[in-house]
Amino acid sequence: MAPSVVKFDHLERMTDDTGLLEHSLGRIPRRREGYSTDDNARAIWACMEWLNLLGDDESAERRRLYRLLDRYLAFLLWAQREDGWFQNNFHFDRTPESESRSDDCLGRSLWAAAVAYVNLEDEARRCVAAEILRRALLASRELRFLRGQAWGLAACCLLLSMRSDGLALPSGVTENDVKNLADVFEQCLLDAYLAHRTDDWRWYEPKITYANGLLPWALFVAYRYHGRAKTLEVAKESLDFLTTKMSGHNGVVRPVGNRGWCDSDRRADWDQQPIDVMKLALAAREAYRALEDEAYREVVRRCRDWFYGNNDLGIPLADPSDGSCCDGLNPDGPNPNRGAESTLSYLLTEAIAQSL
């Protein structure tokens, strides 16, 4: 049985007074490679998942998570431009790198801000999440790619679900604004699925590439908000297809490899990325919440076990003694570096498993 106690030592090691550093050499941060907003947004989400799990006790871990959360909120507040979009990549000296604006980064940051906004109880932090969220919602009208739209759909439905419980929206944001955005994003995902689905290909794109579970997850989130049958049908059909494509011998989770991805003719087994396992667990948790089907809880368990060695090589990637995780599983073994994305993928997967 995989360990149930997780520490945040490595997350803290990777965090300085600016925010979460992106890469490491082994367990030691690589400062020369700087920061990404993507990772700091993921870190906000991870902190909120674990704060919810740890409850109301005033433990040392809760106090540490709040200290880290403050760094990550400050990072997003700094990285957000006046138009609501985000500078994603920064050098270690805090100067921005040259880049094009990223749908994924905006969507991921929008989700992180929404999670913080609906879960934080103290107004001092919550007002920061509200400001980030307000500007990100305005910018999200320009999202054009499926993964950014999936983040946007989930964030809007989370806000609308909490709105029904009496939560006020950020200043300047109306309920109709959020509903209209959610409807647009949901229709984009459904249209993409209809355009590419065949009898033997149940997916939104001609290839299964990265962070795939995000797409059915967002539709399950939407279904739990409004209960539309077609949305549930697409979410379930696509998640079941993805789970099959990501399963190996005896049901071991086998992420689609980034050396060629997966289409109707072939599937790459290597290299396997922790983020893809986390996104499958995320979608399966939402499916379980919607359908109460134990098969989906079992998928979450298998995703968790992948990090502890129930994978194609039988080698653990995660180290619960400090909460770190190797950057990927390659045919010759794990990548020994333990960067932000992989570590957060592990911490989020463990939180997802413990929440069920």
TrEMBL record:
Gene Ontology annotations of biological process type: carbohydrate metabolic process
InterPro entries reported in the protein's UniProt record: 6-hairpin_glycosidase_sf
Domain of life, source organism: Bacteria
SUPFAM superfamilies (alphabetical): Six-hairpin glycosidases
UniProt-recorded name of the protein: Glycosyl transferase
